[in-house]
Amino acid sequence: MTTTTHPAGTEQEGYDASAPLLEVDDLHVEFRTKAGVARAVNGLNFTLNAGETLAILGESGSGKSVTAQTIMGILDMPPGHIAGGEIRYRGKNLFDMPEEQRRRLRGVNISMIFQDALSALNPVLPVGFQIAEMFRVHRGFKRKQAREEAVKLMQKVGIPAAEKRVGDYPHQFSGGMRQRIMIAMAIALDPDVLIADEPTTALDVTVQAQVMRLLKELQTENNMGLILITHDLGVVADVADKIAVMYAGRVMEAADVFEIYAKPGHPYTKGLLESLPRIDAEGERLNAIPGLPPALTNIPPGCPFSPRCPYSTELCRTDRPELLPVAEGHVSACHYREEIYSGELKPREEAQA
Amino acid sequence: MTGYIIRRLLQFIPVVIAATLIVYGLVFLMPGDPIRALAGDRPMSDAVRETLREQYNLDDPFLLQYGKYIWGVFTAGDFGTTFQGRPVSDIIQQRLPVTLTLAAVTFVIQGIIGIAAGVLSAIFRDRFIDRLVQVSTVVVVALPVLAIAFVLQLIFGLNLGWFPIAGTREGLYSYILPGFAMAAVSTAMIARLLRGELIEALQSDYVRTATAKGMRRSRVITRHGLRNSMIPIVTFMGADLASMIGGSIVVESIFNLPGLGEQVYRSIQAQEGTVVVGIVTLFVLAFVVINLIVDLLYAVLDPRIRYD
Fold first, then answer.
1. What are residue A81's DSSP bridge partners?
2. Are B65 and B57 in contact (CB under 8 A)?
3. Which one of A60, B115, B255, B297 is most buried, counting C-beta atoms within 10 A?
């Protein structure tokens, strides 16, 4: 790699070096469709520091990907609409920036890896061109120089015979190699924040581990803040420092990774962990969480998880619990977080029905 | 790749034979005696008629006539002679430039306007420009070329006097009006086709990736969106160009352009089979060659397509 140069004028443009790398503050995102308003993200909060891996965990429709797209500024608007809140990069609100300034952040300071590399890479352009494009557009490199950088990056992410393959097209690579090319593209300009949206979901299990290892290595090397969006609890345990569990567009629980696995403070997290296949429970049925997530056009007034929650009470159905601490660095949005955390509370019979 | 080209070239042979055989047969089946048509009102002695029939192989059985003709085309480049004794290849040489110029002007017009309208329509989807393009293209597609040509001739040629209405005396400028008449329908088709393709491309994951890479909107649209949407447009424009090489009977006749289309029209009326067949043979050859080029271009535009 060449020397890391941050975009000209990073300091002048009002960034605060002492502020956290990325803060999402009470973010609301909705989709205004003919069928009604779908509230995809409802008051989301989290903070990401340099060198930290935050896993955002949640099932389909929990607002994970919408959050990622909102941070990147690639949400389709309309129908998407930012209904409130702020996203601050080094203390500066992204929503206050002129579009041109935001564009210069994309791929340079904040960059993103997509789930399906085959559709996310342009099918008619050589991979080398697609990587080199980063240097040509953001750094003004000449064609040849940019191509050399692309080859170096391909070597760095572990693509064999990179020199020969730089002119190949995406369909000529295997799934794992394609995802490595996506990664090469995303880290080309040494971003501070890397968002990986289900980076290994489309890959074989063996390849998944390799790709995650590569991501982790690159993160450590460049001291990046990594947001790992996933629904796979297994992936999270290996690489994440912190976990935020999302449900119906909100953080239900956030804590560091060991804490959350050992002592979940929210019934939803507890349910997710209990639904994992266990090696010592062979032959038993998996404990799936009953029911489905709420429709985003019609989120229940109280706790969004209450209809599926085995611990829910009348209070849960009427009052939405705030995200409050249960222990040092551990927050949960549950009225009974203390009891869940300590394991005192037993499931209620009527809720099970 | 080379193998593919050779195979495609070999496929020319049956295509050319079939096409020319059909046209030759149609001319053969035309009612009336061509020699009599040639003589017109004046009397013609039996001896002269016999000589002429002999000269043009008119007494041979159909297949032998055809065989003699096609043999001449491929061995000596001899497309036959007219009843006036003029070689058909001469006529083609004289008239081809007019048709090629018209085809080129048409191609450029539909390329520029069609692509521009399609791109604008896709970018400003559901906005005023898009609606305008959508409505106007429907109208144009629905109109026959004949009507478009006469309307253009009337408004811009006669009433406004901006363009010549007939002939080729003013050089390239004379081709603008006929070019627009001929390009109109295809331009509308290209605009509509490209709009759909580009809208789809702009919603694709790879375009989203390009935006996430911090590319400018203009680069996202041209390098990433348009690059992909142009594949079917190239196919369409190629096929369209191929059909223009044969000349447009309607447009060339209305604007009185001495091109191949106008010649075909005249020769059919005069029952001059050799001329019709000669021009059609050329047209078939051009069509097949252009289609081959389009197919090869396709592989360049879309690397996922490989011919082996």
1. A30
2. yes
3. B255
In angstroms, rounded to a whole number, what is the distance separating the alpha carbons of residues B68 and A21? 84
Instruction: Collect all residues of chain B within an 8 Å Cβ-Cβ radius of residue A108.
Output: 214
Q: Closest to B212 (Cβ–Cβ): which among A74, A122, A137? A: A74
Query: What are the residue boundaries of the structural domains of chain B, listed by start?
Result: 2-88, 94-301
Bridge partners (DSSP) listed for residue A135? none
Q: Collapsing DSSP states into helix, strand and coil, what is residue A332?
A: strand
pTM: 0.79
Q: Which CATH superfamily is domain B94-301 in?
A: MetI-like (1.10.3720.10)
Contact A119 B216 (CB under 8 A): no
Confidence of residue B36 (pLDDT cuts 50, 70, 90): low
Fold of A22-240: Rossmann fold (3.40.50)
Q: What chain B residue is nearest to A73 in terms of C-alpha separation?
A: B212
A106–B206 CB contact, under 8 Å: no
Residue A122 contacts B, CB cutoff 8 Å: yes
**What would the two tokens of residue B175 be?**
């081709």
| R_g (Cα) of chain B, nearest Å | 24
Please report the ipTM that was assigned to this predicted complex.
0.83
Mean pLDDT for A79-96 is 86
Pairs of CB atoms within 8 A across A/B: 76
Predicted local distance difference test score (pLDDT) of residue A8: 45
Q: Which of A348, A337, A166, A325 is nearest to A264 (CA)?
A: A337
- The Cβ-side half-sphere exposure at B154, using a 13 Å CA radius, reads 6
Question: pLDDT of A107-138, one tens digit each?
Answer: 889 999 988 888 899 999 999 999 999 999 99
Distance of alpha carbon B274 from the chain centroid? 21
Residue A159 to residues A126, A214, A255: CA-CA distances in angstroms?
15, 12, 36
Distance of CA B266 to CAs B256, B262, B263, Å? 12, 6, 5
B212 contacts A107? CB cut-off 8 A: yes
